[in-house]
Design the sequence.
């Protein structure tokens, strides 16, 4: 900022020159830059084939630490309690269970790594998001950032499918994985699903016609990479979450959007033949998970049974943080394969070991016992109940329906997806951001305030 002198008689005074127009326009966005930077980090490839170097620190992890540090410094300098009492209780509910499970870990390094990871994803980053988002305009801006990230990753995924440079699937390198690589095949589908849900919520909101049409176009465009991800769990969770949004938005809108969605599906699959044979085979496999399951489904059932067996031996506090791999072979049947095949998207063929049950609830149950499950599920249930109550208030007051649909649908998607997946991989940091958005809608007093500038 520059200053210009102003002569007043014999004295010279200084007045501040007006800020440049670009800075004035960016002013409302500046407090969100740490959070938007964190989301942008998920667009970066992570080593050869998008790998994260064997579970090491990623750029997104590093930025998430900076975001938490910024919020902590701001809270200390403010000298006030930054969160409400309810927010403290809900967000901190898993912490005692995490600490107890860490005491039972097999090694000090596992204990420390497990505590840091769980607190990062479910406590610290969500709390930071809750503090950084000031009002519903900020909330919508973060939603648009998730849409943009989904479009970016989805575009890369479609290119991978068309050029045969994706991850290996059914003997062909056609699986869309974005920048996450073959070692995190769920990464792109998760990001695209988040973006799709945000776009549908913004299309159902009370924004201008231009905003709603843009959001609807983004949602339809994100259907293609979601389909080409060949992720059955993401398909199921997204279908349920979007249907929930449409129904909660109103019966008339539900009928119109269901017709649009059905027409888009017919055009994409029937007209353009987007992965027709492979998609049909993948869709039909959803109904064959019990009659004739493939090896991936068999492995998952075996891992689920092993996790349940671990819990039966240690019902209260589980086997300890990050100790599932150490106890896996002692509880799994011979039906479990040595690992999953990984190839394509720049990665050489190798076998990736199965080190988790691919079910968040069973992972917590096996490693943290009933104490952990009750803490985590209790916190998520509190967010869901409070979010749905505020959705009803949004309907009555006409304030923030799009935010309500976005938050409730994201939480619904996550809770369903946790039945098929758990935390792990570079995209996990974005899960923390999603829980932060959900927490803001459910717990922040500003969620139902009047829009800034309303009535002027």
Sequence:
């Amino acid at each position: 900022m520059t200053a210009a002198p102003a002569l007043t008689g014999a004295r010279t005074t200084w007045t501040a020159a007006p800020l440049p127009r670009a800075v004035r326009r960016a002013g409302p966005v500046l407090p969100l830059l740490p959070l938007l930077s964190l989301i942008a980090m998920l667009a970066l490839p992570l080593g050869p084939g998008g790998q994260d170097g064997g579970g090491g620190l990623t750029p997104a992890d590093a930025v998430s630490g900076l975001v938490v540090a910024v919020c902590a410094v701001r809270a200390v300098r403010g000298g006030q309690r930054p969160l409400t009492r309810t927010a403290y209780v809900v967000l901190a509910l898993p912490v005692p269970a995490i600490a107890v499970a860490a005491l039972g870990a097999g090694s000090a390094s596992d204990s420390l790594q497990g505590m840091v990871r769980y607190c990062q994803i479910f406590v610290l980053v969500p709390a930071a998001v809750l503090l950084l988002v000031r009002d519903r305009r900020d909330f919508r801006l973060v939603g648009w950032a998730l849409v943009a990230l989904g479009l970016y990753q989805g575009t890369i995924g479609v290119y991978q499918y068309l050029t045969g440079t994706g991850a290996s699937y059914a003997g062909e390198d056609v699986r869309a994985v974005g920048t996450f690589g073959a070692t995190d095949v769920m990464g792109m589908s998760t990001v695209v699903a988040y973006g799709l849900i945000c776009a549908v919520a913004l299309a159902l909101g009370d924004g201008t016609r231009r905003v709603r049409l843009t959001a609807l176009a983004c949602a339809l465009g994100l259907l293609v990479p979601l389909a080409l991800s060949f992720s059955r769990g993401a398909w199921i969770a997204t279908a349920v979450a979007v249907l929930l949004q449409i129904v909660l938005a109103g019966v008339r809108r539900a009928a119109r959007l269901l017709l649009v969605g059905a027409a888009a599906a017919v055009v994409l699959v029937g007209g353009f033949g987007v992965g027709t044979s492979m998609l049909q085979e993948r869709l039909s496999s959803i109904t064959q998970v019990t009659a004739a399951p493939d090896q991936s489904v068999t492995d998952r059932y075996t891992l689920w049974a092993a996790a349940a067996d671990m819990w039966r031996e240690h019902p209260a506090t589980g086997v300890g943080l990050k100790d599932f791999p150490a106890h896996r072979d002692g509880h799994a049947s011979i039906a479990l394969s040595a690992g999953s095949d990984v190839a394509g998207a720049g990665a050489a063929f190798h076998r990736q070991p199965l080190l988790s049950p691919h079910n968040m609830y069973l992972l917590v149950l096996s490693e943290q016992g009933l104490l952990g499950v009750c803490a985590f599920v209790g916190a998520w249930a509190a967010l869901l109940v409070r979010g749905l109550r505020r959705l009803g208030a949004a309907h009555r007051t006409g304030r923030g329906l799009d935010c309500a649909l976005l938050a409730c649908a994201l939480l619904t998607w996550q809770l369903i997806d946790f039945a098929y997946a758990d935390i792990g991989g570079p995209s996990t940091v974005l899960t923390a951001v999603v829980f932060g958005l959900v927490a803001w809608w459910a717990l922040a007093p500003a969620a139902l305030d009047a829009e800034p500038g309303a009535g002027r």
Remarks:
- The first strand starts at residue 3 and ends at 8.
- Strands lie at 3-8, 11-16, 167-169, 172-175, 340-344, 347-352.
- The first helix runs from residue 21 to 26.
- The radius of gyration is 23 Å.
